[in-house]
Backbone:
């Protein structure tokens, strides 16, 4: 009887750990719309662009986030997450992203003075090109025709590469993996 209970208990423990493993949330999953329409390339390119565009800027917390974000942290150390995804017709994909500290604290771009504030971009899927860059959160009325800045036209600028190489140990894990994938880091 003890053997039966021990085997039963071992089986229950094993099945619980296996079902837990199957349901574990994957850290960098794609949004359902992106996955279902096979738009990962555009999503990754947009996220990469936003990561590179702001990477070496120091986060200056706005009033409501003062004390929540450490001093001297750069955007390249923060997770970039989508905040707006919209497919218009079958050929235009709008993506807005934001940087988050600790996955929850939205870091404002309003304190950045070194370049144009960009929240996202829109792709022409048929022609595999950027249509415009958005500089208002979830309001794509103010556009900057492509390319509206050297980092937007080509994110791999010398200062971006220098930043990535010198901060490799503190980069957001996705940003670091993408830099390796894109051969910016070895």
Residues:
């Amino acid at each position: 009887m003890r053997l039966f209970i021990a085997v039963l208990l071992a089986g229950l423990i094993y099945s619980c750990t296996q079902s837990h493993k199957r349901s574990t949330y994957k850290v960098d999953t794609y949004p359902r719309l992106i996955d279902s329409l096979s738009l990962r390339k555009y999503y990754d390119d947009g996220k990469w662009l936003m990561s590179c565009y702001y990477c070496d800027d120091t986060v200056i917390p706005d009033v409501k986030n003062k004390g929540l974000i450490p001093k001297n942290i750069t955007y390249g150390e923060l997770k970039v997450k989508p905040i707006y995804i919209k497919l218009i017709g079958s050929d235009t994909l709008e993506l807005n992203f934001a940087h988050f500290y600790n996955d929850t604290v939205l870091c404002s771009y309003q304190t950045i003075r070194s370049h144009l504030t960009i929240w996202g971009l829109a792709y022409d899927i048929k022609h595999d090109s950027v249509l415009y860059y958005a500089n208002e959160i979830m309001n794509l009325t103010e556009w900057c025709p492509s390319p509206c800045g050297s980092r937007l036209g080509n994110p791999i600028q010398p200062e971006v590469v220098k930043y990535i190489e010198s901060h490799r140990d503190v980069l957001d894990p996705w940003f670091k993996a993408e830099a390796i994938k894109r051969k910016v880091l070895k």
Observations:
- The CA atoms of residues 60 and 111 lie 6 Å apart.
- The chain has one domain: 38-181.
- Residues 3-26 have pLDDT under 50 and may be disordered.
- The chain has six helices and six strands.
